[in-house]
Amino acid sequence: MWWISYYRLYRILLLQLSGILLRKWTNSALGNINVRLVEGNALNRGRVEILHNGVWGTICHDYWEMPDADVFCRQLGFEGALIALRSAAYGKGTGEIWLDDVDCKGDEPSIFQCGHKGWGIRNCDHSQDASVICIPIVRLSEGVFSHKGLVQVYHSKTWGWICNQGWDKQDADVVCRELGFTKASMVYGSLKDKGGVIWMKNIQCIGNETSLVLCDHEDWKKHSCTNGQLAGVECSVPEGKHLISPVRLVGGTASYEGRVEVSYDGSWGTICHDYWELPEASVFCRQLGFEGALLALRSAAFGEGSGIIWMDDVHCAGNETAITQCKHRG
């Protein structure tokens, strides 16, 4: 219809003429313009920085824990934090270190309302800059370690699917960049045989959006797909970049036993024991260089881990070369 064409033309011109307008819209749509994440390879992770007196600065990692990271992530528009990182996990900042000894209860609407030493008062350097990985608002169904899968979006505290009506490479490119890749190598549709809600339909990205949720689409509601297909994507992986994450055994008395742990984005975490059986254990052991597994143990047999639990409901066929190639919840 002619009015749709004029609207699209107006929006394209508006975004091309004002890059700063897009940046402000992105920040306000996803959170507060006085906080940001820097140096991460995706929208939901990076070194935490705050704006004070017109100058960007970092936060010292002293007492930087999940309640503080949760407040920061929610201020950015995410649901909360996956993990609070220390020791300049995303590189050292420069200039001011604005806050130290940040102490949030966890329910504050802003990091600025949490307790701290005072603006610019600190006893640390940039090697102690705080970082965070926030709960993403877009993910792929094959799991957090995968570069392909059906696209899911987080809305109203629920993960939902995307209808592939109007789904094209321009939309898929936005998803891949949001997840830390450069672009999409393939887009596809999959027959809807999944449960759950479909949140987005008829998406129309211009291509320079920083998140899929900033693209034009029909209203947020429970949609149905007239073609019965969900949107999928395969993101391009640069040559030399490996998606197989390091794994290790911890807490055992010998090198061939222990609690299973996997590293993602520089942080070690555990695997939940749901559906953990010999096929999964064998894949894990072969990734470590062993022939396979003798037993698959549950219930923290080698002690409880700490930090994040990276994977749950792991299902391996048994012939995978890495545990992250197995299906899991993400």
UniProtKB/TrEMBL annotation:
It comes from the Eukaryota. It holds the Pfam family SRCR. Residues 35-135, 138-236, 247-330 form the SRCR domain. Keywords: Disulfide bond, Glycoprotein, Repeat, Signal. GO terms for cellular component: membrane. Residues 1-31 form the signal peptide. InterPro entries: SRCR, SRCR-like_dom_sf. Disulfide bonds join C60-C124, C73-C134, C104-C114, C205-C215, C316-C326. This is SRCR domain-containing protein. It comes from Pocillopora meandrina.
